[in-house]
Queue: 2 jobs
Job 1
Amino acid sequence: MKRITKYLMWGFGSLVGSILGFISNVVAMVANGGFMPVYYRHLFAEAEMLDYNHITMTVQAHLKFLCDWIPLGPYVGSPGDALLLGGFLSFIVWVIVLSGIGLASLKGF
């Protein structure tokens, strides 16, 4: 029973991480009028509106630590994106592990 509880907590943690990532992205966008500010030096120096939901980060941006500022090659991500991705990947691994050890159906509850 302890083993099953450990695996269920792993799945629950994955879900919580994804939900927290989603909520942090929504909070950043709501605080900035429905747009996600993007900070990336020299990449978007000219443009103010980047696409339908991204704008260039200025001094007027709110909650900058939740906005897109983490450089990922030609892209930029936010802490919320990292939580979403981490939670999603952890959930995928969780399903694969449970399938591999025969607990995917969670029989015996």
Job 2
Amino acid sequence: MFRKNPGSTQALTVEENLELAARSAPQRVPLAEILATFPRLHDRRISYGRSLSGGEQQMLAIARALIRRLRLMLLDDPFEGLAVTIVQNLLEICRELDDALLRSPRNIGV
């Protein structure tokens, strides 16, 4: 679980946040793959968490979860307070992830 505005990660760069999230994961998604999924985070990878917009912070929170190669991720109002363009971008990313999971030979039934 990742909080929306984790105070302890505000002093870390985007890249450091992702590396920290992946550190204790039994399996992890390569950093390059996560940054390719979130091009805006790739552009801001050396920026500190405190300098990110609300939408970028939300992308970072989702990316921190995804890098851990979770089997299940629950999102509670992930688009709250975000600009329409950011919401559209995040929805597209979620659709792509859903499509990728459905095509995966390791997918699990619900």
